[in-house]
């Protein structure tokens, strides 16, 4: 059931992301053109942007449940993530909730997308807050775990070595009849208008896509515990990226590859507004023809999901034939194979904002070859 619903929601979210990309992109362009003193027009633009951002959040949750979001994982330690994120967690819990951290010494590392892991943790913390009606105790704990039997820690989780991250609350617990459907999409025990019912399903999808699992249980002494299990990874923790130096485009020419006309028109407008010159083609084969024909470009900006050759395959070909030409990928959707192959390239997720696009391009143009 979860797999079938995941395929449906993933397809819908992909198409919806392209629509939101057009809306948010033109919001950014209009924002720079409206007179600062025209308050009614500015309020209208802000309202459109806010609504589109809520839609973008919803589609991201759908993609997370469907295990179709683009994960940009790196080697890190969950103790560091929890410590760095604690101030935001405490603000989310409020002043009447006591937060306790029990972090294991010598915790193993994991390969995790830190942004999505923080979102998953925040979802669990928000649920804990609501389960306690805003007052009580929350404990966040980490631990090394080894299991020699499949499914012992969480549904679908194979035997092996894992790093666990748990959130325990002193609330009313989970109704027994709800334990087997608490991760279903759009299932919620909250009142109307108090939640989308996608928070826990997003956590479930993220954990399964990360190769781990999630489990929920009631405690004998009261309250509930949600535990995330990440596969153990070996190696040194990645260094944090350095600062971006450039601020504006300098007239460089960018080859944009996008099969959706409306998204392509928007992309050209955004890139030109950032100070770049743009040449657009609507498929990967045509992009290679232009490059092999002697076209000179500072960067290739390509969608991933297109008819025929994918953007990832195009990027790989460019890296072989034009090793000094940086490539920036974009997508509102991902599958397992594309996710694995795209990690060697910089990526901006749809729907992206003007500032996101500018930052990614500047990072590539200021790097040695734009090669990760």
From TrEMBL:
Enzyme's top EC category: transferase
Record domain Response regulatory: where: 253-365
PANTHER family: HISTIDINE KINASE, SENSOR HISTIDINE KINASE
Keyword Nucleotide-binding: no
Domain Histidine kinase: 11-234
Name by which UniProt lists this protein: histidine kinase
Swiss-Prot/TrEMBL keywords: Kinase, Phosphoprotein, Transferase
Signal sequence interval, chain numbering: none
SUPFAM superfamilies, alphabetized: ATPase domain of HSP90 chaperone/DNA topoisomerase II/histidine kinase, CheY-like, Homodimeric domain of signal transducing histidine kinase
Keyword Transferase appears in the UniProt entry: yes
PROSITE patterns: HIS_KIN, RESPONSE_REGULATORY
């Amino acid at each position: 059931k979860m797999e079938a619903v995941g395929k449906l929601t993933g397809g819908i979210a992909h198409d919806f992301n392209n629509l939101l990309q057009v809306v948010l992109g033109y919001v950014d362009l209009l924002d720079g053109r409206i007179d600062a003193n025209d308050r009614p027009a500015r309020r209208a633009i802000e309202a459109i942007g806010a609504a589109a951002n809520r839609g973008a959040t919803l589609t991201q949750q759908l993609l997370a449940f469907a295990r179709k979001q683009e994960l940009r994982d790196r080697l890190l330690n969950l103790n560091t993530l929890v410590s760095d994120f604690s101030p935001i967690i405490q603000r989310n819990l409020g002043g009447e909730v006591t937060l306790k951290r029990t972090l294991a010494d010598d915790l193993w590392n994991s390969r995790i997308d830190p942004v999505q892991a923080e979102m998953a943790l925040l979802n669990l913390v928000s649920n804990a807050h609501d389960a306690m009606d805003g007052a009580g105790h929350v404990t966040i704990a980490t631990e090394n775990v080894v299991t020699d039997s499949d499914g012992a820690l969480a549904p679908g989780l194979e035997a092996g070595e894992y790093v666990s991250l748990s959130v325990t609350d002193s609330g009313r617990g989970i109704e027994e009849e709800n334990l087997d459907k608490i991760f279903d999409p759009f299932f919620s025990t909250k009142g109307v208008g108090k939640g989308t019912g996608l928070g826990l399903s997003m956590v479930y999808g993220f954990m399964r896509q990360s190769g781990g699992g999630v489990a929920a249980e009631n405690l004998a002494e009261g309250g509930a515990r949600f535990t995330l299990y990440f596969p153990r990874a070996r190696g040194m923790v990645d260094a944090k990226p350095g600062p971006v130096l450039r601020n504006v485009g300098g007239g460089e020419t960018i080859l944009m590859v996008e099969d959706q006309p409306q998204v392509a028109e928007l992309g050209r407008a955004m890139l030109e507004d950032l100070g770049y010159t743009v040449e657009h083609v609507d498929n990967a084969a045509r992009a290679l023809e232009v490059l092999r024909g002697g076209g000179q470009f500072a960067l290739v900006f390509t969608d991933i999901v297109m008819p025929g050759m994918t953007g990832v395959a195009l990027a790989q070909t460019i890296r072989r034939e034009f090793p000094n030409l940086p490539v920036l990928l974009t997508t509102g959707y991902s599958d397992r194979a594309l996710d694995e192959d795209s990690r060697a390239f910089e990526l901006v997720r749809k729907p992206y904002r003007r500032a996101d696009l500018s930052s990614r391009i500047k990072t590539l143009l200021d790097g040695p070859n734009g090669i990760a």
